[in-house]
Structures are given as C-alpha cells and as structure tokens.
Design goal:
mainly alpha, 5 helices, 0% strand, elongated
C-alpha cells in the first residue's frame, strides 16, 4: 500500500464516519416523540385514574409505543454511543416517571399543580439525549 492508497482509505473512512453520524439523527426525533408520549401518559395516569376511559387510553398509548418501537427497529444505523445514551436516558426517565407517579398518586391525586409540571419533567431526560444526539451529528457535517 502506497501513500496515495492510504490517503484514499482515510478519506473513505472519514466519509463513512460522517454518514453514520448523520444517519443516527433519527434517534433525536424518536427520543423527542417518546418524551411527548411520556407527558401524555403521565397526564393520563394523573387525571384519568380508575375511570372507564383509562383502559382505551392505555391501549392507544401502547399501540403508539409499538409503532415507535417498530420505527426504531427498522433503522439500519444508530448514533455513536447509542447504547449508553439510550440506556442512561431511559434509566433516568424510568426513575423520574416512577417518582412522579408514586408521589402524585399518594399525595396529589388529580391535582393539576402536581401533574402538569411532573409530566413535563418526565420529558427532560429524553429531550436531553435528543440534544446530545443532534450535537454529535452536527459535528460530523
């Protein structure tokens, strides 16, 4: 391999790296949509409680989540660092979501002063991950 071949290989590798990073941008949208779904779910749990509307609401949410999963599984490229970002984002989301639901159900049932801000807080971990993905994908452009 001569110097020219090595340079061509480096250029090709850099182009592949750039494409892969840009190709992972879809995850930012996925995380933002899931963040919105988290807000809706939290508000639904907080305000619908044990009413008859709760079951169809949960079925609709589960179908939406299934569509989101199929979309994610259909993507051939994941962002750089996907494993730790997704794991950390979902882990923190799970803790925040569980805390908002538990505290809300025990101390603030159906009180908008708790459930509206709490619902918005559940979106923060996933929106933070979306911002990291977008920042990393812009580095590659």
């Amino acid at each position: 391999m001569d110097r020219e071949d090595a340079l061509d290989g480096l250029v090709a590798a850099e182009e592949i790296n750039r494409r892969v990073r840009r190709g992972g941008r879809w995850y930012a949208g996925w995380a933002a949509v899931f963040a919105g779904m988290s807000v809706v779910l939290t508000l639904g749990v907080g305000f619908l409680g044990a009413t008859w509307v709760f079951v169809p609401f949960m079925v609709g949410w589960a179908v939406s989540f299934a569509v989101l999963l199929v979309y994610a599984l259909s993507k051939p490229v994941t962002p750089a660092g996907f494993g730790w970002m997704h794991g950390l984002g979902m882990g923190v989301w799970g803790v925040v979501f569980a805390a908002v639901l538990t505290i809300g159900q025990v101390y603030f049932p159906a009180q908008p002063a708790w459930w509206v801000p709490g619902a918005l807080v559940t979106a923060v971990p996933l929106l933070a991950v979306a911002c990291v993905v977008l920042a990393r994908s812009r580095e590659a452009v």
